[in-house]
Amino acid sequence: MSVELGIIEGFYGPLWSWRERKQLVQALVPHGYRFYLYAPKADTFLRRRWDEPYPQETTVQMADFSNFCRKHGVRFGVGLSPFEVFNDFNDAAKEALAAKLAFLDGIPVQELAILFDDMRSDTPDLAARQAEIVHWVAERSSAEQLTVCPSYYSDDPVLDRVFGERPSHYLEDLGKALDPSVRVFWTGEEVCSREISPGHLQRVSEALGRKPVLWDNYPVNDGDRMSRHLHLRAFTGRPAANKEHLAGHAINPALQPTLTGIPAITLAQSYEQGPEYQYGQAFIRAAQEVLGKELAGQVAEDLLVLQDAGLSRVSRERRLAMIESYSRFDHPAAREILRWLAGDYQVTDEMVQTQ
Questions:
Q1: Are the CB atoms for 35 and 111 separated by under 8 Å?
Q2: Residue 82 predicted with pLDDT over 90
Q3: What are the b/e assignments for 246-282, b being 16+ CB within 10 Å?
Q4: What number is the average pLDDT over the span 41-59?
Q5: Rounded CA separation 196/187 (Å)
Q6: Which domains can be identified in the chain, with CATH numbers?
Q7: Helices 56-71 and 18-28: angle between axes, nearest 10 degrees
Q8: How far apart are CA 204 and CA 201, in angstroms?
Q9: With 0-12 CB in 10 A as exposed, 13-18 as middle and 19+ as buried, what is 120?
Q10: Over the stretch 200-233, which tens digit does the pLDDT of each residue have?
Q11: What are the CA-CA distances from residue 355 to residues 40, 48, 54, 140, 351 (Å)?
Q12: Dihedral through CA 316, CA 319, CA 325, CA 331, nearest 10?
């Protein structure tokens, strides 16, 4: 048995192009990635302005991407974040939500995720309210699979500090209230978990009354601090034994779509190889597959700077030398590194607070 792998494009920061999304799908299909959820925080028509209709151009592009995914055996879905709707699910909100669901049916989407993450609430019966909304959506959506992201999607106390203290027994109450067919996202013991263990997932499964879908916040690098680093190394801290406790494993990609393929491929290798997995060797193989041998060698040589030191600790001389090195390569990954060196991928606190 293997776990179903997928991409959930759920980061803050600059949007990818539809071409970049297609290229990532093509790169990962051979490694068992079978679903793609479109949910970038910068797509305002999914989040802050969720109740407004999409522009025609985006509608056409989304429908084309849905068709592209289907042709490649990938389930296409959308993550809809009706911003803070659980605080007042009134008639106007219901009318707008019904219109958006009808729009998504027309794309079409095979999976629909209702995302309640990163929003404030002062609703004591939050779990019951959110379950009510999810069931209301289920009655009006033609999506084959419905998934929800809880407001408190991790044990991490940072969520309580930023969005208010979680209601007592929130996770257990949500699990009891939700229909068993609804899947639930979970990021682990931390928002960006360094390790996710079978024991932890077993506890969460018992609380929810179902196996969670792991929303893995690696290799994502959004936010002011993380966007100064490229997350390229192979996956660690995700033992293959986790598959017994998961309904799926979705990675939140890095801001750099081509480079994302490197760690994404190693996750598939981790599940395939089990205890024989070696993360260093996995990185080398995946980097060579994505980049070609010469560019992979250059990235491996610069890995300490790219992932560990980051932009803030790169001297002017080293930066200029790296620009010269990567300018030699006609490859989308090299262009992503050059954009990163130029500061094009910097995510500000303001972007996180307003997207």
A1: yes
A2: no
A3: bbbbbbbbbbbbbbbbbbbbbbbbbbeeeeebeeeeb
A4: 93
A5: 9
A6: 5-286 (3.20.20.80)
A7: 10
A8: 5
A9: exposed
A10: 999 999 999 999 999 999 999 998 999 999 999 9
A11: 9, 7, 16, 27, 6
A12: -150
Q: Quote the tokens at residue 39.
A: 């949910």
Neighbouring C-alpha atoms within 13 Å toward the C-beta of 278:
4
Place of tokens 């060579």: 288
Q: What is the chain's Cα-based Rg?
A: 20
- Cβ neighbors of 106 (< 8 A, separation 6 or more) are 63
| Per-residue pLDDT reduced to its tens digit, 307-344 | 999 999 999 999 999 999 999 999 999 999 999 999 99
Q: Are 12 and 41 in contact (CB under 8 A)?
A: yes
